[in-house]
Amino acid sequence: MKKVELSIPDMQSAHCQTRVNSAVRGIAGITIEKIESGKLFINYEDDNEKKEVIETIEKAGYKVADNITQDSSCATGCCGN
């Protein structure tokens, strides 16, 4: 399981967070761990799923800035990189 923190600077309000959440939650293989002002934390298995999330967010009208990826070999993600 891989984890990624996506930076979405323009996603500040609750309305914007709901819009992004609604767009992303329909993607198979993606688990939304947390969403907060300017950030989306997801779990995924395949890099194509991550790419699809970024494309979906951009289609919803938001720019995805540089992201921080944390790969983990354990199910809980506690093992870090």
TrEMBL record:
InterPro entries: HMA_dom, HMA_dom_sf
Annotated HMA domain residues: 2-65
Stated name of the protein: Heavy-metal-associated domain-containing protein
Lineage of the species this protein comes from: Bacteria, Pseudomonadati, Bacteroidota, Sphingobacteriia, Sphingobacteriales
SUPFAM superfamilies named among the record's database cross-references: HMA, heavy metal-associated domain
